[in-house]
UniProtKB/TrEMBL annotation:
It comes from the Bacteria. The lineage of its organism: Bacteria, Candidatus Portnoyibacteriota. This is UDP-N-acetylmuramyl-tripeptide synthetase. Keywords: Cell cycle, Cell division, Cell shape, Cell wall biogenesis/degradation, Membrane, Peptidoglycan synthesis, Transmembrane, Transmembrane helix. It comes from Candidatus Portnoybacteria bacterium CG11_big_fil_rev_8_21_14_0_20_44_10. It holds the Pfam family Mur_ligase_M.
Length: 462
């Protein structure tokens, strides 16, 4: 029905179409957000993990909480996968989920709130009480028509909360765009920072400013000090200290005690496909992560460099459909900066040719290396020592088939190496041409290929 309506509505009326649907969805489900304390998390990266940490803290501390993110949904202790491939659900689905939260007795709803969702008015008719800003870097620029418009979409969440009596804002004060968010007059504000060298007077004058320091990342956890309290988080990466700090600020704003918050974070569960450690007993490390744009990609590679393992092997691609083409060579440059072996492959190509997307990424890799990539029409043998040395000297591969790319990476891995499989994370589909979706489970594929290698099953054939 909605797809038919979209075809009938003229392009110049699409904005009103989205606006009206938002209120219609809320009306049908009886404005459920009015019976919840709704927390919206926005930014470029860290949204999904921050939402999960907030929900886990609130549930642990006895307040039943519902959540909607790119990866997963939850209502209290019940959790299930988001298979819609939408960061923010459509208006009717989202309002229905909020109604289910109300009927289940939830006090809180935590919603990952995307710029795309805001552009389509999915946030309308939702009574947000708390807005969280994680960070901002260029993404979806083509969709928004420029970075300023992208930032303006994010700001709308804070403008909405500012209209609410007792609205709360939580801010990453280390981000260079934070002044734009602080300019919106929200009553109660909480900020967190590591550098704490405020980029503007609003950040400098913020009263509820919390310092994060002594961040230490290991292969199994991240520890940090928040003000005077030491926290241990069973998630890896410096960026997860930031995500946790945002969640702590939200919890403090709701009157929770720091001791309770600390216990909850000690027991935090990792999010599927977010720096997910794959352990099948192999002698090398393997991590699956959603990092699909330059900031998160570099953050993930920086994090694993702290592990002091031998070589870093990275398997990644870039989305098609004409989205953010500018970032493709940049991703290649970042891979070259941090990885010893680079395998560029397919990642949601849509209607673009996967090989052409890969070539655009390789421009960034090869401009730094001054070499040429190896295209594996016939993959290397897994057993021949000479053949393997020849491959390692080349160290850049173009492999269109993603499973095959994973297979090659696993086969090349030696003791104490680390492989980062980036881009797909916990997604359950791969978007290909003509709008088709292919079922995909990155973690399962990686586990299968590792088990095959350990069982001495020939995984690569000429």
């Amino acid at each position: 029905m909605k797809s038919l309506l979209r075809k009938l509505v003229p392009e110049f009326m699409m904005n009103w179409y989205h606006f009206i649907l938002a209120y219609l969805g809320a009306l049908i489900y009886r404005f459920p957000s009015r019976k919840l304390i709704v927390i919206g998390v926005t930014g470029t990266t860290g949204k999904t993990t921050t939402c999960n940490l907030i929900a886990q803290i609130l549930n642990y501390c006895g307040s039943k909480t519902g959540m909607a993110t790119t990866v997963n949904f939850c209502i209290g202790g019940e959790e299930w996968i988001n298979e819609y491939k939408q960061t923010m659900l459509g208006r009717f689905k989202l309002q229905k989920l909020l109604r289910q939260m109300v009927e289940a007795g939830c006090k809180y709803a935590v919603i990952e709130t995307s710029s795309e969702g805001i552009l389509q008015h999915r946030h309308r008719a939702i009574d947000y009480s708390v807005a969280v800003f994680t960070n901002l870097s260029p993404e979806h620029i083509e969709r928004h028509g420029g970075f300023e418009n992208y930032r303006a979409a994010k700001l709308e969440l804070f403008e909405k909360v500012a209209k609410r009596e007792g609205g709360i804002g939580v801010y990453n004060l280390d981000d260079e765009n934070v002044e734009s968010f602080l300019a919106i007059p929200i009553k109660r504000r909480y900020g967190y920072c590591t550098k704490c060298r405020a980029s503007g007077y609003r950040a400098a004058m913020l009263e509820n400013k919390h310092h994060i320091y002594d961040i230490d990342v290991s292969p199994s956890k991240t520890s940090f000090v928040f003000d005077d309290e030491k926290f241990e988080l069973p998630l890896i990466g410096e960026f997860n200290a930031y995500n946790a700090a945002a969640a702590i600020c939200v919890a403090l704003s709701q009157g929770l005690e720091i001791g309770q918050i600390k216990k909850a974070l000690t027991l935090a569960r990792p999010v599927s496909g977010r720096m997910e450690i794959i352990d099948e007993g192999q002698d090398f490390a393997a991590i699956v992560d959603y990092a699909h744009e330059p900031a998160s990609f570099e953050g993930a590679l920086k994090a694993i460099k702290n592990f002091n393992l031998k070589r870093t092997i990275v398997v990644f691609g870039s989305a098609g459909g004409g989205r953010d083409k500018w970032r493709r060579p940049m991703m290649g440059e970042i891979a070259d900066k941090y990885a010893e072996i680079i395998i560029v492959t397919t990642d949601d190509p849509g209607d673009e040719k996967p090989g052409e997307i890969i070539d655009e990424i390789l421009e960034g890799v090869l401009s730094a290396k001054g070499g040429s990539a190896v295209r594996l029409s016939s993959p290397p043998k897994s057993s021949g020592g000479k053949n393997r040395e020849r491959i390692l000297k080349k160290n850049v591969f173009k492999i269109v088939d993603r499973r095959r790319a994973i297979r090659v990476a696993v086969d090349l891995a030696q003791s104490d190496d680390l492989i980062l499989f980036a881009g797909k994370g916990g997604e359950t589909w791969m978007n290909v041409k003509n709008g088709k979706k292919i079922p995909w489970d990155e973690s399962a594929v990686v586990r299968e290929e590792i088990r095959n290698k350990m069982a001495d099953i020939p995984v690569i054939k000429i």
